[in-house]
Amino acid sequence: AARAIGLLDDALLPGGLDARLDKGGANLSGGQRLRIAIARAQLSGRTVLADEPTAKLDRATAEAVRRMLIGISGARLV
C-alpha cells in the first residue's frame, strides 16, 4: 500500500517507514500527512470517506491515489 502511493520515496519521507515522526506529524507537510492517511485507509479494509483526497498532491501521486481508490472500490465502499 505504501509503495503504491509513493510513501516510501526518501525524497518525500526521508527514512521511509523508519522515519521519525513528531507528535501529531508536526514535522510532516500536508501532502505527507495525506499520503499516510490514504495508506492507512487502504490497509484498514474499512469504508473510505475522502474529501478532496488529492488536493495537496502532485499530479503523478494524485493519479496513483485515484487508481488505488478505484481499485479498492470493488471490495468496499469508497
Write the layout of secondary structure elements.
Elements: H1 30-44, H2 59-72
Tally of domains: 1
If you compute it from the alpha carbons, what radius of gyration comes out, rounded to the nearest whole angstrom? Answer: 12 Å
Query: How many β-strand stretches?
Result: 0
Helical residue percent band: 25-40%
Structural account:
This protein has 78 residues and is mainly alpha-helical. It has one domain. The longest helix is centred in the middle third of the chain and has 15 residues. The relative contact order is 0.18. The mean pLDDT is 80.
Task: Summarize this structure as a short list of keywords or feature phrases.
78 residues; mainly alpha; 2 helices; globular
Quick summary:
It contains 2 helices and no strands. It has 78 residues and is mainly α.
